[in-house]
Structure formats: structure tokens, C-alpha cells
Amino acid sequence: MLNEFIYCPRLFYLEWVQGEFSESVDTLEGKFAHRNVQELDITEAGHRIHSLYLSGKEITAKIDVLESEKGYVVPVEYKKGKVPRNLRLPWEGDRVQLCAQGLVLEENGYKCSYGMLYYAGSKERVKVKFTKELIKRTRNAVKQAFELSSDSRIPPPLIDSPKCPRCSLVGICLPDEVNALKETNSEDVRRLFPARREALPLYVIEQGAVVGKSGEVLEVRLKGEAVGHAKTIDISQLCIFGSVMVTPSVVYSLCQRDIPICHYSSGGWFYGITHGMTHKNVELRLYQYRKAESKSEALKVARQFVEGKITNCRTMVRRNHPHSPEQLLFQLKNLAKLARVAKDVESLRGIEGAASNAYFSSFGSMIRDMQFDFKSRNRRPPADPVNALLSFLYSLLVKEVVVNLLAVGFDPYLGYYHVPKYGRPALALDLMEEFRPLIADSTALTLLNRKELADSDFVVVGHECALNQNGRKKAIEGYHRRLDTLVKHPIFGYSISYGRVIEVQARLLSRWVGGEIPAYPFFHTR
Prior knowledge:
Layout: H1 2-7, H2 9-17, H3 25-33, H4 35-40, E1 44-45, E2 48-55, E3 60-69, E4 72-79, H5 92-107, E5 114-119, E6 124-129, H6 132-149, H7 170-173, H8 175-181, E7 200-204, E8 210-214, E9 217-222, E10 225-231, E11 235-241, E12 245-246, H9 248-256, E13 261-264, E14 270-274, H10 282-293, H11 295-320, H12 326-340, H13 345-361, H14 385-408, H15 426-432, H16 436-449, E15 458-461, E16 464-467, H17 469-483, E17 486-488, E18 495-497, H18 498-513
């Protein structure tokens, strides 16, 4: 952590105080470089001790290798890269980290005057003497790190720093995005994280299926026969519908890896989630609760959610309505303006209701397949195929938002626009408002207009209509095609997938909650 503090105080704060961590190529290569040390684990061979933990008054250190030489001990710190040839000395963070180990050894009665940095990339050692200047710098770093960790304010991000692209937490920190929204003297926003997510959800909808584990692979079996499998490293979520059993070893493994298990009813109602320990970022949840207690602050962000939804509804009408109804477009534009200046949440709900009624009054005209007739939005239960499809897609979307909010550290049950209610993920419903038209409604129109869904994909029982198993498969495929679609961010200018946009918006919401940016910017497209 001292090494991280010197490299970037914000990175230290994110990892040490807020408990954030994300793997990258660099962190995985670092683990690989340490593999021999870790495998030996506190074993002593001659004058070498591996993986030694020691604590002092202020510092706890894990020493990769401790060697003894002529009455002195020498800590050896492994580094994945090569010796930095263009520097007179190794990186300051590495030297401070090694010196801190020396200070801990001294506190525990050992004599230690220097240490070694072993660079696995070039298989070379570099000697680091613990000079008075280095010891003073190390003690100051310890003091400053403690002071920062007790502060309730996260340090500002670096501005246009070359350190950011290689940082494993850059997608969490969002340095360029935060600086742009704070109107600092930052250059163009760089996209410093992948445009798409590499891991994808695994859906199991076959009733009676069993999800088991073999090594690092999840196996889906039905009546004893294997019907599917996926590597754990390739899975972002496990989504199970109805009577699907998950073995304890799978639950343990996914909780250890922070991969959530999302539970749906057989009809597609999202009702629960299984995950590991709650996110460590208690600080964010405290900020969230304080903001929610303030009616004025809650109203500020609620306006953004609703204006974003109405703006994106208008975009959907412009894109998909065959006759471009000017009166409806004008009405939605005015309602978005009214949402921006609403005086209280109650009037904001009235504005949103009027916009939804106007939008869905024209939704049927955007469906080109004449076998599907849509007159109005209805639910609980949906009475026709289009409403059944919309309800199912909204259920998938709220799951997506809940998972992202939990990953950021939010409490998804306390929102700013939707009224808190037992079992209702109010904050997830808040954040998904701006994505309903762009993701769920757009997916529904694509599936219907391309005739990917037919009457045979729905089942009607009494006054209730629902997708059958085949229809749900098609809807899930269409939904994830939409999440994987690249879109240009209206503020930052780079292209990322809709799935990644949800994560970015959740993190921007956390930056507003923590007071880093003046307002939450809703997402919209042209």
C-alpha cells in the first residue's frame, strides 16, 4: 500500500480505504512472478525464509524472501518487470516498500541495512541501501498514508497522467471523466478501459437442470447428461430461472470470485441475488444515505433520471416511428424541460407519468409486424405478447443495474426517485430509467420488427401472457446483442458498449454522491 500511495494517492485510497480492486495484465503478471515464493510459503531452506509476515507498530509487511548474511538480514522483494535502465535509482515506490520491510525487521530485533529488488523480467537484483534520506521518506509516507486514510475525502485524480493507462483501477477511478465533469484543465477524455466486457452472464433456464463444477469449469446437466459448460473466468453472472439447482461448490467458488448468482422465477421475475461479502466501501453507502436524507439533493438527481428517460423516449420515437409525429416529439421535449426544473418529486412523478403515457400511445406504431397489436402498457400480469416481452426485458435490465450498483458499493434498495419499499431495489429502478428506452424498448422493437419472435414464442393462460422457454432464449440473446452494441458517449466522446455504459453511469453516480462532481450526468444518444 505504501508503494501504491507514492505511485498515486487516489489509487491508495481506492484500494485501502474503499476496498476496491480489479485485476489487470500487470497484476496477473505480478502474481505469476511471485508464484515460486508463494508456493514455498513460510518454509526455511538454509539462510532463506520465504513468505514471511511481520508486524511493527504501524506497518505489517509480507517479505517475499528473507536472507541472512554475516549477522544481518536482507529482505528481497520480487518485481515482475525488468530493471529500469533509464533511471539512476529504482522507482521510489519500490525503494520505500523495501525500506518499510527493513524498518519492520529492525522493530522485531533484526539487523537490516539494505534490501534487494529482484526483477523477474530480466532476472537481475538491484541493491537498495536504507539511507537516512530513504528512511525519513518512508516514515513520512507512512504518516501521510495514515492521515489520508482517516480523511473522508478521496484525493483528486491525476490529470492527463501517463500512469493512468496501466493502472488496474482506471475503470473504477475514471480519472479523465471526473476531471472533465469537474471542468479542470484536462485534455480530451481518453478511453482507458475496454469498450466491451470480456466476461458474460451464463443463463440456465431448463427446468430441473443442475449447475455443478469441475475444476475451473461450470457444467450444466439435465437428467444426468451434460448440456452446457463455461469456464469460470469467462462468466460475469450466473442467472438461473425457476427450478434450477446450484451445487454448494459452485456457490462457494462464485462467491469467492465476486460473481453473483441471480435468481429468477420460472416466468422471468427477478427476485433475488446471491453474492459474496458486501462491498467494503461503507464510506459510499454513508454518503448515499446522507444524500437521500436531503430532499433537495435527492430532487437534483431524480430530475436527471427522469429527464434522461424522457429524452431517450423521444429519441426512440424519432428513430422508429414511421410518420415522425411532430406534436408528440414537441410534447416530449417540453416534458423533458419541465422535468429539469420540477420543484418536488411528486410533480416530477406526474411529469414522468404524462411522458410515459404519450410515449406508449405511439409505441404500437413503431411495431411493423402486424401480428402483434399493442394498445397500451399493462403489467402485473402483462395481458399481451408485447407487454410480456417488455416486462421480461425490464426484469433483465433491473438485474443488470443491481449487479453494477453492488459492484460499485451502493445499497440498491435506497433510491432518490422511487419510494423505498420492502424488497424493492429503488436505486436500481432510478438508474435504469434512462436505459429503459435505449436498451429494453429498443431490444423489443428489434426482436418484433425482424420477426425473430412469433406467436408460438408466447403462452397465454387466462388473462396473463408470458414468454415460453424458447421465447425467453430469443429475448435473452437479443437483449445481450443490444448490451454489446457500441455507442458514442455524449460527454466523453469515446465508443463503449451499452453494457459498459451502465457501469460507467453507476460509477459517475458514486462520484456525485461522494461530492467529486457537481451533478450526475444522465446518458442519452442522438
